[in-house]
Design brief:
Elements: H1 8-73, H2 89-100, E1 105-112, E2 117-120, H3 132-135, H4 141-144, E3 146-154, E4 161-170, H5 172-182, E5 186-191, E6 197-200, H6 204-208, E7 212-218, E8 231-237, H7 238-241, H8 243-267, H9 271-288, H10 303-362, H11 368-392, E9 403-406, H12 407-417, H13 419-425, E10 428-433, E11 438-441, H14 443-460, E12 466-474, E13 477-484, H15 512-522, E14 526-531, E15 537-544
Parallel strand pairs: 10-12
Antiparallel strand pairs: 1-2, 1-4, 3-4, 5-6, 5-8, 7-8, 9-11, 12-13, 13-15, 14-15
Helix pairs in contact: 1-5, 1-8, 1-9, 1-10, 10-11, 12-14, 14-15
Length: about 550
């Protein structure tokens, strides 16, 4: 059996299989490996970013709840504790607090030093002995679904310690954050300093039994508050994460099976004619792995062999193109966001150029105002060129050029740039606060921030609206407060207005405020949004004051 010559039919089929399967398998394996690595890296970075944002949100929530209890414990009404809250004023106050926070707090108690409940949001518990003090350090929020915030009650006149204020926090709020973070395809768990799980998403235990991509973030405290030493872990099952890769794999496998079948069927009837070209093609295939770019595919033989050679050449080219496409896919989101952001920022100086040019064209002679408009055209042209240079510079972040800048003068110049647009829109703008305020910053980028915020406000204000800009200092920081009389920002959107592509304004693309936050954070500052005293939005920027 071993000495019997092998039929050319089988030799040809074997050669065709090698010629098709080996290079396709190599390139498929390379493509899958790189695609898997790129996808896993992208998912890991996304999970890491999400875990950092989520633990920061949890830190903020716990900090705010403790601040609530601390501030309540210092109110004058807490003196009712000394007289046993005989008129139930304190109990009514605690009940109003519970109601106003809409389910955040389940119960609020004021107890004396004997741990007797003197006043409570729950009338039925008044006069009972509180068990909270004894269990405070042993509470398992995963079992009790609660967390206790406490503060000493100090008499504001005598400074005497008269009791404690306990607020029972609905721990399901933390669970809701984890559920929102994890979604359907991910799982999240919050661990305390001892490594015990204190909150988890519904699918956390199920996800532990599968291979997964994981990331964790440590609690860092909020606004300088001590860290809770909690750790947030987020995982995503690899089985779910790599579903697109598996689907692509089945397509490649089907393609390989089709190629193998055609090769075997075509080998038998033309074995004698194409034996020599096939040997050449087989030799090329064997050498292709070592030197993929060194040799050329054989072109000789019958027309069918020549077509097969061309098809093989096209297949290699398609695989190379597929490999490049898979590599670019991982970068597509970042490049798209960067290009969109820079395109949005170019519109602002172009708008100013257009407005300034229109004013200049109305003047019969070049007046003082015309000269000023020309200055605007020059400065904004320079800024636009810098943005274009940034776009051409392979998506690199523009470096900050720090200089000592008088923030008051810079704000006045920015307002002057918009004077024509403000007058046309019928919007009044006022600058209040300090007369001089020096900071270290990039003049062009801070100008960009002020322009974005003022233009956003102007676009949302109706005729005869008002914008107020206040500059002052607080705790070694320069504060820029920009308030408007527009419609304001709904509370549920105030944390999301700085997210890329989040916009509720008609025609908006949601990139302006994302760029503003990026610039402010690059200056080691912060920016927040809420509703202000004029009835509309209030943006507060904190930047470090210039150091001497």
């Amino acid at each position: 059996m071993l000495g019997k010559p092998i039929s050319i039919k089988y030799l040809l089929a074997f050669a065709f299989v090698l010629a098709s399967l080996i290079p396709v398998s190599i390139f498929t394996a390379m493509s899958f490996t790189q695609a898997r690595q790129a996808l896993e890296l992208e998912i890991s970075e996304d999970i890491k970013t999400r875990s950092q944002a989520t633990i920061a949100e949890i830190d903020r929530m716990m900090f705010e709840r403790q601040q609530n209890v601390d501030s309540w414990s210092r109110l004058d009404i807490m003196r009712e504790l000394r007289i046993g809250d005989v008129d139930k004023r304190l109990s009514g106050f605690l009940n109003n607090l519970k109601t106003s926070y809409r389910g955040i707090y389940l119960e609020i108690h004021a107890v004396n030093l004997n741990n007797k409940i003197i006043a409570s949001s729950e009338a039925i518990q008044i006069g009972q002995i509180s068990q909270i003090k004894n269990d405070l350090q042993n509470i398992d929020p995963l079992q009790t679904s609660t967390w206790i915030f406490s503060a000493k009650i100090i008499d504001p006149i005598t400074s005497e310690h008269t009791g404690y204020l306990y607020a029972v926090f609905d721990w399901s709020k933390i669970g809701n954050i984890l559920e929102s973070t994890s979604g359907d395809s991910r799982a999240a768990a919050l661990l305390n300093a001892k490594g015990h799980i204190i909150s988890q998403s519904k699918n956390w235990q199920q996800d532990l039994n599968t291979q997964s991509i994981q990331a964790h973030s440590q609690s860092k405290g909020y606004q300088g508050a001590p860290s809770l030493d909690w750790v947030l872990r987020i995982s995503q099952s690899k089985n779910v994460a790599f579903t697109p890769i598996r689907e692509l794999g089945w397509m490649f496998l089907l393609f390989l099976l089709v190629v193998i079948g055609i090769s075997i069927l075509a080998a038998a009837p033309v074995a004698t004619i194409i034996a020599k070209p096939l040997r050449k093609l087989s030799a090329f295939t064997r050498n292709f792995k070592k030197l993929p770019n060194a040799a050329e595919i054989p072109k000789g033989g019958p027309r069918e062999i020549q077509e097969l050679s061309k098809a093989f050449e096209q297949m290699i080219e398609d695989l190379r193109q597929s490999q490049q496409d898979l590599t670019r896919a991982a970068k597509l989101a970042v490049v798209g966001e960067l290009s969109a952001a820079l395109s949005h920022e170019v519109r602002t100086p172009l708008g100013i150029l257009k407005s300034s040019a229109q004013i200049l064209m109305r003047e019969q002679g070049l007046s003082t105002e015309g000269k000023e408009v020309c200055g605007f055209i020059l400065s904004e042209t320079d800024r636009m060129n810098k943005l274009i240079d940034t776009l051409l510079d392979s998506g690199k972040v523009r470096p900050i050029e720090m200089d000592a800048i008088n923030l008051v003068e810079l704000t006045k110049q920015t307002i002057s740039m918009l004077s024509a647009q403000l007058q046309k829109a019928g919007v009044e703008i006022n600058l209040t606060g300090q007369k001089t305020l020096w900071i270290d910053c990039d003049k062009e980028q801070i100008t960009q921030v002020l322009l974005n915020l003022m233009i956003n406000a102007m676009q949302l204000i109706n005729k005869k609206g008002k914008i107020e800009v206040n500059l002052h200092t607080k705790n070694d920081y320069a504060l820029i407060e920009i308030a408007d009389s527009g419609p304001g920002i709904p509370i549920e959107f105030q944390e999301r207005v700085f997210d890329p592509f989040f916009s509720k304004r008609t025609g908006g693309i949601g990139l302006g405020l994302a760029v503003v936050r990026q610039i402010i954070e690059a200056h080691h500052g912060t920016i927040s949004a809420k509703n202000g005293h004029l009835g509309g939005a209030l943006f507060t920027i904190r930047l470090p004051i210039k150091t001497t």
